[in-house]
Amino acid sequence: MSTMMAPVGAPSEDLPKDRGWLTQKNLIGTLATGFIPLTLATLVVALPLLWMVLSSFKSTPEIITLDLHILPANPSLHNYQEAFSSVPFARIFMNSVFVTVVGATVKVFLAIITAYALVFVRFPFKNVIFIGILVALMVPSQVAILPNYILIASLGWLNTYQGIIVPSLGTAFGTFLLRQQFLSLPKSMLEAAEVEGAGHWRRIWSIVVPVSGPSIATVALVTIVAEWNDYIWPLIITTDPNLMTLPVGLTLLQNSESGPQGYGVMMAGAVIVLVPVLLVFAMLQRYIVAGLTQGSVAN
Amino acid sequence: MAELTVADRPPKRKKRGWFSIPRNRKDALWFLALALPNLILIGLFTYRPLIMNIRFSTLNWTLGSPSATEIGIDNYVRWFTSGDASIVLTTTAIFAVCTVGGSMILGLLVALALNLKVPGRTVARATVFAPYVLSGVGVGLVWLFIFDPVYGLLAWVLRTFGMTSPRWFNDPPLSLAMVIIVYIWKNLGYCAVVYLAGLQGMNSDLMEAAQIDGASSFKRFWYMTLPLLSPTTFFLTITTILSSLQAFDLIKIMTPTSTGTRVLIYEAYVQGFLAYQRAGYSAAISVILFVILLVLTVIQITVAERRVHYA
């Protein structure tokens, strides 16, 4: 695990020469090259999101105005009520939760057992299979939408949960990432278990999984975020608002609330989609960042 | 689970019988049981579509229609001769170059700042990365509001400086620029964090030696940091080009009618699903996109083998 997180996570040990940013000589330089650019970058990233939250509480006349005020004069939940009444948002929110939970659970499970098989079970041409998975990692899912749509439609799975979930269940990313982690485990640990008579199934769940907790958490979080944000596939596969996921529901909202007077409602919708991910990210950013930048370190 | 573990326990030494499937074969069965579900799913929903696309691309076929006529390479011929090709390929290239270049250069600058021991850099790192995990749909809506030429935040800022806002939504080049800006905003944090990992993995003794030898900080950056970062740069170039060619969410939300943003991926969607329902034509565009991705990857790998300095 440490090999995986170290380059991204922990700050490197300070060198003895490093006297910190407070040294007078360094101070101005650090301010100019470090502090100011970072503050600027942080503001550029944070302001649009802050603007979204503030605007979602504003009334329509406060939004359609040339005389902008930063804070809403009378913060109200009007835009949220409007969003929930023009589109079945509560249902759509629950759809997103359901699709994300089921999809991510299955994908993490499949990633664990596939990666275990690739690393610890003897089989001819394992490397070829692994290359096949790596190539799949590079195939954009968008290229596959038309044939997949036709397949799912022929199964009668349009506007169904299985139609949304099943086509993305195969996981090249999770397999790739967990394979890297499993390769770093000491072989002796597994051999000892084998001598004691533990079969593959038990070796997976009582040895490999417990010691790989952080990597699995990383895969799980990255998968959850990806499922939550997934757009093009649910967009194509659902036309019934009762089966849409949040990003698709937002499109519906955008269509029904078009024009400047709809901005407040759209900001409320954006808050509903973005804030859950922001909260999860704020709590667990270390794992998420490590997972999403994993390839660079593995390279 | 309990049953399986019991059954799997090796038989008491050398007992013959149905247990004595050679270990190799038993392992092979385990391998298949564990890996096959995932491999089948990947095959069915990732590899199969690649092949089917090639098949569909030879058909004159309206999505949902029961009949289709075989037309060979007519879809490709039509695409390349209709003038669509030059618009779409140019737009795709502009989008890719601007987003990849922009997010990598800005990402590197942010990474250099993050690498200094500045107070609050942990918060800054997390904040800058955050947009990367957000839904493109949500982000697109927020920026549409900000870019609104009359009521947007940006228009207000420009007005305070006595300027009028450009008409971002109607002018094709401006629409493209708008989407590029938002795409860079969303992705530069990823580049920054990957570059930061590269910077922190560098040998600091080397840097100090250069500093003692009197190399200016720009020289150190240009002649040492940058070459030493080339594996990271290479990795980022591949990943950001691949994701840039797959950019769909922002384009769909910010320019639903593809004003100025007729990139390959969106064109395939528009032709296949929106309005036209031309399944064969859409498949042909998807095939072209995939071939481009393939060629790019091969070129990059060959170049990388020769040129990249692996520290």
Determine the mean pLDDT of chain A. 84
CATH homology superfamily of chain B = MetI-like
Structural class of chain B: mainly alpha
Tell me the span between the first and last alpha carbons of chain A: 16 Å
Top CATH class of chain B:
Mainly Alpha
Largest sheet of chain A: none
The name of the CATH superfamily of chain A reads: MetI-like
Number of helices of chain A: 16
CATH topology of chain B: MetI-like fold
Anisotropy-based shape of chain A: globular
Q: What fold name goes in the CATH topology slot of chain A?
A: MetI-like fold
Keywords:
heterodimer, A: 299 residues, mainly alpha, MetI-like fold, globular, B: 311 residues, two-stranded antiparallel sheet, 14 helices, 2 strands, disordered N terminus
Structure description:
- In chain A, helix 10 (187-195) runs antiparallel to helix 11 (200-211) and helix 12 (213-229) packs antiparallel against helix 15 (263-292).
- Residues 1-19 of chain A have low confidence and may be disordered.
- Chain A has one domain (81-298): MetI-like fold (Orthogonal Bundle), CATH 1.10.3720.10.
- Chain A contains 16 helices and no strands.
- Helix content of chain A is 71%, strand content 0%.
- Chain B has a two-stranded antiparallel ribbon.
- Mean pLDDT of chain B is 84; it is low at 1-7 and 11-19.
- Chains A and B meet through helix 2, helix 5, helix 6, helix 7 and helix 11 of A and helix 1, helix 2, helix 4, helix 5 and helix 6 of B.
